[in-house]
Specification:
Length: 204
């Protein structure tokens, strides 16, 4: 597993490109469709350069976290540009802690490819979200197409070294294993990309 400081440096180097690139209309539509459901106190994990910020309802209160200081700097500017009420935390998300039931909505888009322990992060999300809250995920992983998945497995070591991103995780399998209650799923691009509307695991 890549050492965390090296992973942070990879994302620091990518911050300018994340901020400058204009996503294709399809990905913008996915984000709009998902992020428009956020409400109340929101935690966004791995905020990056703030690609979700144009699509939040203006009345939400956002806690935005990322381990890359360069990404946080870009996201701060995006929050001002889009007139959002946002507070930023530059920390290793896998080491962060919040009290249970702290947030009405938890958002993660394209972050579960990089965690050392993705199931542990899902467990944290289950605890941090209010019992009646909403979990909004847009994540990518292994394709259900045999040829595509074979290519992903072959290229994954190289792509991880360059971008800090695993391409072979079974996202839906991880979500189900976490006990999260799935309300709705939309899958795209040979089932590599999943939009997920969910609720936290029922508390015993």
């Amino acid at each position: 597993m890549m050492e965390k400081r090296k992973l942070v440096r990879i994302f620091d180097r990518q911050a300018k490109a994340y901020d400058a690139k204009r996503e294709d209309p399809v990905q913008q539509r996915w984000r709009r469709n998902l992020i428009g459901h956020a409400k109340g106190d929101v935690l966004e994990l791995a905020v990056g350069a703030g690609a979700n910020f144009p699509f939040y309802p203006r009345e939400v209160r956002i806690t935005a976290a990322d381990f890359s200081g360069a990404m946080i700097e870009k996201a701060r500017k995006a929050a001002v540009r889009h007139q959002l009420n946002a507070d930023f935390k530059c920390e290793d998300i896998e080491e962060m802690n919040f009290p249970d039931h702290s947030f009405d909505t938890i958002v993660s888009t394209l972050s579960f490819c990089s965690y050392n322990n993705p199931l542990g992060m899902l467990d944290k999300i289950n605890r941090w979200c209010k019992p009646d809250g909403t979990i909004l995920l847009m994540e990518h992983g292994i394709s259900s197409n045999f040829l595509m998945s074979a290519a992903q497995k072959a290229l994954n070591p190289l792509l991880y070294r360059i971008y800090g991103c695993h391409h072979t995780r079974n996202i839906m399998g991880l979500i189900r294993e976490s006990g999260m209650r799935i309300d709705r799923v939309e899958s795209y691009s040979l089932n590599m990309v999943h939009l997920i509307w969910a609720r936290p695991q029922r508390q015993l």
